[in-house]
Amino acid sequence: MKNILARGGTEFLAVLLGISGSLWVDDYRIELVNNEKTIYTLKSLKKELESAYDYGQDIFQNISEDVEAHNYIIDHWGKINIDTLISLKLGRKDINGETDLILTLKARCFGMCSRTASTKSPCGSTIHTPCPSCTS
């Protein structure tokens, strides 16, 4: 009887250790996969944050340049012309090196050109037609 209990107890311990070891290995593999996914996610998040930071710095720089340009225009409102603005290179630059601000002022003449023609539209609002020197 003692042999049967000893043999049965030994088999029970062997089965228990085998199942426990198998479950531990499975849990360890799952943990490794989860750690790899976490590392991948954190690296992706880091890249995204770096990209957002760079974008924010660009936006901040653009706003600073726009504020500087607009302050210059406000300070020199009555005595400024397009050529002066172009030579100062105020605001953000496009592919051709011209700034958004300059392009806008050139397109509209912004009341700085004496050759701007004003006409009335059918609805009664004033239409300002830019002169050829400002649009070319």
Describe this structure in words.
This protein has 136 residues and is mostly helical. The protein folds into two domains: 75 residues; 57 residues, no CATH class. Helices cover 69% and strands 6% of the residues. Strands 1-2 form a two-stranded antiparallel ribbon. A hairpin with a 5-residue loop joins strand 1 and strand 2. The radius of gyration is 37 Å and the shape is rod-shaped. It starts with a helix and ends with a helix. The C terminus is likely disordered.
The H/E string reads HHHEEH
Biggest sheet descriptor: 2 strands, antiparallel
Q: Catalogue the unreliable spans.
A: 110-117, 119-125, 130-136
Q: What's the overall geometry?
A: rod-shaped
Distance between termini?
111 Å
What is the rounded Rg? Answer: 37 Å
In terms of structural class, how would the helical and strand content be classed?
Answer: mainly alpha
Number of domains: 2
The total beta strand count reads: 2
Strand content: 5-15%
Quickly count the helices: 4
Please, what is the oligomeric state? Answer: single chain
Taking strands numbered 1, 2, ... along the chain, how are they ordered across the largest sheet? 1-2
Helix proportion: 55-70%
